[in-house]
């Protein structure tokens, strides 16, 4: 075998190893990029969950301040009864839980005999990424171990309560 052929054969082996190393490097970079994309996506869903939770809390608050009772179902927040003279919409639509992408909220029951819904919580059991810097209305979210622990409930203050009969 001539020395030219041996040199060419040796060079093709190095090319193969170089390509193999390049494929491994690209695979590692793609894995890291997908992890970053997953984290960014989860953080965006957390922001949506906070926005939707605040929207439900505010809608229940407006419903309570107008009717002096908690809604019996989430659908009550979409508008008043057809026979009511005043049409009031507290929510535009029933928003899905961003963590599950379904309207499968855990409903928080209101205290008292009349019952109703005083708030919502996500049905997701995943651990949240966000663990600090919450609004004052979201006190206690720092200790949450799942998204279901983020409970968006409306508790009326003393001036909104009816006097006892």
Please summarize what this structure is.
By secondary structure, the chain is mainly α. The chain has one helix spanning 3-67, and strands at 106-109, 117-121, 151-153. Strand 1 and strand 2 (117-121) form a beta hairpin.
Describe this structure as you would to a colleague.
By secondary structure, this protein is mainly alpha-helical. It has one domain (3-160). Helices cover 39% and strands 7% of the residues. The protein has one helix and three strands. It has one helix at residues 3-67, and strands at residues 106-109, 117-121, 151-153. A three-stranded antiparallel β-sheet has the order 1-2-3. A hairpin with a 7-residue loop joins strand 1 (106-109) and strand 2.
Features:
1 helix; rod-shaped; disordered C terminus; 3-stranded antiparallel sheet; 165 residues
Number of domains: 1
Mean pLDDT comes to: 86
Largest sheet features? 3 strands, antiparallel
- Strand content is 5-15%
Question: What order do the SSEs take from the amino end to the carboxyl end, as H and E?
Answer: HEEE
Q: What characteristic shape results from the CA principal axes?
A: rod-shaped
How many β-strand runs? 3
Overall radius of gyration: 28 Å
Spatial order of the strands forming the largest sheet: 1-2-3
Structural class: mainly alpha
Low-confidence stretches: 158-165
Helix count, per DSSP? 1
In whole angstroms, the N-to-C terminal distance is 109 Å
Helix content: 25-40%
């Amino acid at each position: 075998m001539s020395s030219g052929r041996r040199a060419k054969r040796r060079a093709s082996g190095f090319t193969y190893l170089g390509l193999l190393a390049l494929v491994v490097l690209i695979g590692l970079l793609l894995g890291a990029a997908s992890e970053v994309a997953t984290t960014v996506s989860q953080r965006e869903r957390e922001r949506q969950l906070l926005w939707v939770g605040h929207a439900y809390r505010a809608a229940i608050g407006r419903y309570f301040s107008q009717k002096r009772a908690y809604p019996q179902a989430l659908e009550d927040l979409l508008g008043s009864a057809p026979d009511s003279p005043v049409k009031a919409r507290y929510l535009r639509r029933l928003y899905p839980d961003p963590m599950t992408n379904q309207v499968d909220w855990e409903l928080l029951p209101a205290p008292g005999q009349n019952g109703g819904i005083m708030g919502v919580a996500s049905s997701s059991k995943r651990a949240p990424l966000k663990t600090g810097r919450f609004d004052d209305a979201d006190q206690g979210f720092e200790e949450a171990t799942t998204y279901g622990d983020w409970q968006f409930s409306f508790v009326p203050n003393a001036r909104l309560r009816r006097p006892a009969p």
